[in-house]
Amino acid sequence: MDKSQLVKGVFDSVVNRYDIMNDIMSLGIHRLWKDKMVNSVHFTQNSKVLDIAGGTGDIAIRIVRREPSAQVTVCDINQNMLSRGRDKAINSNQLNFNWVCANAESLPFEDSEFDYCTIAFGIRNVSDRKKALSEAYRVLKPNGQFICLEFAPMHYQNKTLTKFYDLYSFKVIPKIGSIVAKDKSSYEYLVRSIREFPTQADFKMEVEEVGFKNVEFHNMSYGIVALHIGAK
Ligand SMILES: C[S@@+](CC[C@H](N)C(=O)[O-])C[C@H]1O[C@@H](n2cnc3c(N)ncnc32)[C@H](O)[C@@H]1O
Fold first, then answer.
1. How many domains are there within the chain?
2. CB of residue 64 inside a 6 A radius of ligand 1
3. What is the 126 CA–ligand 1 centroid distance (Å)?
4. What is the pLDDT of residue 70?
5. Which tens digits make up the pLDDT trace of 162-171?
6. Residue 187: inside a domain, yes or no?
7. Do the Cβ atoms of 106 and 84 come closer than 8 Å?
8. Residue 189: inside a domain, yes or no?
9. Which residue of 38, 59, 72, 77 sits with most ligand 1 atoms within 8 Å of its CB, as the best mutation to test the pocket?
């Protein structure tokens, strides 16, 4: 099965339990990572923001809480995730998002349309990362900012920590997935995809290779996740 079909199957299967699973698996810490991502950026007034692989809208909702005048488009390849996000946004009284079902590798937007492109826990799931990064670059205005939050493959020096992290990743997470989301294999995919993702330094190079400048990364939670920020 090709990766895009696999990923579609994963998110179709977990959509109803996606938010609760994030809370359980990360003990709620994904909320802090997302807060930190959005708080790391100074969103200017009336700026146009594209949240790529925006799923159920967690990042978009945080952006407008921080900068109510921002015009946010949420784009995701999975209509079910977007529908869930739209319901969540309505419940949070956010009615002005633009929801677009599209592939990050071929964005249906003009060149230089957005001031900011955000992507949280999405880049790991695309089939062709270079295409997706190039598309984010294309749709950003000159000097626009690219902000990417993603898990990093952990390479602990400390053996006990490595054992604990492996145990949690390969045993506990799939178990929680099978109990809560009734889907063990999707959460096995999640763990595998994190291990296969490039290191922070290698991903920084990939971001630079498509043209972004001043690229920096910041680790969170001892490098479990990393935030990469670059400018067009
Ligand atoms: C782990 S979720 C992250 C959702 C949201 N950004 C968050 O932080 O909660 C990954 C999302 O990426 C989307 N996705 C996967 N491949 C994609 C692609 N090629 N283009 C756009 N979205 C994609 C999935 O449908 C899913 O909604």
1. 1
2. no
3. 8
4. 97
5. 888 888 888 8
6. no
7. no
8. no
9. 77
